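Here is one chain, start to finish.
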Amino acid sequence: MPDAPAKILFSDGRAEAVHSVLEARFREAGIPSPRTEASILLNELGGCSPLQLFAAGPEGGHLSPGILDRIARAAERRLTREPLQYILGTAPFRDLELEVTPAVLIPRPETEVLVDHALAHLPACGSLLDVGTGSGAIALAAAQERPDVRVLALDVSPEALAVAERNSLRYRLANVEFRLSDLFSAVEGERFHVICANLPYVTREEYAGLEPEVRVFEPELALVAEDAGCALMERLANRLPEHLFPGGYGILEMSPPQTPRLQKLLAARGFRSEVLPDLTGRARFVAASLE
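Its structure:
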């Protein structure tokens, strides 16, 4: 069945005019950063960089009817609040451009800080375990930036693992492996120098109030956890001593109010822990090392 015709029609095919229409429609729909998102669509689908877009002047920068139709269809999807990353099919993470689908969370900039800390504690030729890998962002960034280390990535979702494996193939990373696993179920008896995890930590109450980009389109399985959002993190923390080498390092991403509860549990399991800030200074990570 052929696609329905685009509902957004551009009376003026100049890139600058198209940008103005997109920005206005996005602003009316309550989309954050409407100007930036309009520029991204024109850059990705129309090949118009911001410099080209506004340097073209009032008479230049005309887009073909085919490109205008592609931009209109993408804009209509965005007006439903579907995330731009799913529409374009990719999301940046550190030096990577990762495929993303509704089977995986869209990588967030704050998780790049987790990678910084994980890499800083990885010994030469060491090993890193990424629990709940999703698109593979943490695992693949570590594997690319540290080709000397062994990286193992786990996820409970076969669909998410398929996305992560495609991302790995794109960058031809030979030092990363993927396994289907419910937390540590696929690595019983194995130990690692660093274990990192960005597990679900959103509470049911928080989930109900999330913006539609997240609540409607991103996978609930990768977002929500029971017991005030701590259920999965605490299951993982309880098993950390079995899977870390002596002197090993674990780092978990979470909501700031959850950090005291996790630190208390880790102390009971023999860990020394500290809270680390994200890019905005919020207490986003708990890092733990075996005493």
